[in-house]
Amino acid sequence: MVGPPGSGKSTLLALIAGLLRPDAGLLSIGGFDMRYQPAQAKRRVGYVPQEAPSVAPLGVDEYVRLLAELYGLSDSQSAERSRALAWLRDDASPRRTRLLGAMLHLPSLLLIDEPRAWPPEDLEALEHAVDEVRREGGALLVATRDAAVAQRLQARVIALGLLTPVAERTR
Questions:
Q1: Domain map of the chain by residue range?
Q2: Following DSSP, what letter does each residue of 15-83 receive, concatenated?
Q3: What are 20-62's pLDDT values in tens digits?
């Protein structure tokens, strides 16, 4: 999704990730209704927020163990995925740590909020992660105000614009 600040990109991703409840409508992920089967729907989504704060006081390993438990991964599944994603680990990069967490359970939908300000090495890691999600048959949804970032990730573009309320248009 490409759109200006305030157009609803981050809000839409938060809705899809299950962090916000919709006021109306239906949101289904992998055939699971977010309202009635939120745990099953959320297990199919990996989400990297716009702001990627440190996971402190947890270390990266503790963060990965916590997410593995939340996603219902066994110890062997978690260890296997951690080994497969070792290329992504960078203890000094909160974004890469969040991306590692989002990729841990091999999501069918990867949500990335505003990667335009990421350092080049983190963007390269994101490109590699996107390739992995696609190889596994998953999809990517990126929210950004920079069409070049969407193009770099080879994403289809959905343009969002600011909507002016009807009352303001009639003045």
A1: 9-169
A2: HHHTSS--SSS--EETTEETTT-HHHHHTTEEEE-SS----TTS-HHHHHHHHHHHTT--HHHHHHHHH
A3: 988 888 999 989 999 899 989 999 999 998 876 666 688 888 9
Q: What is the dotted CATH code of the domain comprising 9-169?
A: 3.40.50.300
Three-class DSSP category at 111: strand
Contacts 24+ apart (CB under 8 A), 125-130: 125/87, 125/88, 125/90, 125/96, 125/99, 126/99, 126/153, 127/152, 127/153, 128/87, 128/88, 129/88, 129/99, 129/103, 130/154
Q: What is the pTM of this model?
A: 0.84
Q: Is the peptide bond before 57 cis (omega within 30 degrees of 0)?
A: yes
